[in-house]
């Protein structure tokens, strides 16, 4: 058996153990050597936990990783080891990534360009509207939206990403086969078909409260930045923001009504230096997306490069406002691609949005 199978065995035995599992395997030199260790050797190793070496050894003896791998396959669940090429690059860079994650759906290299959108489980209508629109606009530009599939802001973010025709990743605080909350069954199916459901917990693991703060490090770890939409002063969303800061990722927040308790979390983050977000353009700017727009330096005026879609949309703009519906119809692009092109043109300073969903051209040198 290769090391992947032994890593799977340890993840099944110690889900959510974080650094304890890494320290245990590091002590023995490999997951196989750790798996083959007896009670005496385990007693000398770090990271065993409260059950002690005897309890761990008994559970290890009763578990067959090869059989478990077959069971996962029959359930449509993929186990992805940290040594696999498809293991998320962003997640691998954090302090304590799970050695193995359980996945329903698909992981893609493009998921490296992702943003987490999190917030209250009991948001205001404003919060749900903003989260959905923000995720929809980000997804339309090719950003993968990450969240936790909880009620409220998380669910609104996933739905917005799907409406934007993009990808979304849901990180669960339970097994990947457990639907929580129950009313999100259809949403979970859509996420699996347009992204992935991810968990470090084995199938069947119940959604116990302590698991959710632990999984929040994965939400922030998968993303280039985290946006908090609405959150009370003591909120799981703020835990995610703290993880993002510890991981060296960008933290952003959407301002809200100053009289609402749900605004206290985002406003506190803004006071501490988080980027104030009014729309998707602020997020793209914060995570450094302007680096994807090379500027030709050897011509006067700094000409800006455009994609084919952007050129098609830009050619329809003028100094007089043009309605969005006309831009979509005449460009021949899907609404999602046309809106994405307009957003990129705005970021490049080539277009400006006017009230009533009208757009005008901003003259600059292009090529």
Automatic annotation (TrEMBL):
Gene3D superfamilies: 3.40.50.450, Winged helix-like DNA-binding domain superfamily/Winged helix DNA-binding domain. InterPro entries: DprA (IPR003488), DprA_WH (IPR041614), DrpA_SLOG (IPR057666), RuvA_2-like (IPR010994), WH-like_DNA-bd_sf (IPR036388). It comes from the Bacteria. Residues 79-287 form the Smf/DprA SLOG domain. It holds the Pfam family WHD_DprA. One of its GO terms (biological process) is DNA-mediated transformation. Residues 307-357 form the DprA winged helix domain. PANTHER family: PROTEIN SMF. Belongs to the DprA/Smf family. This is Predicted Rossmann fold nucleotide-binding protein. It comes from Pelotomaculum thermopropionicum (strain DSM 13744 / JCM 10971 / SI).
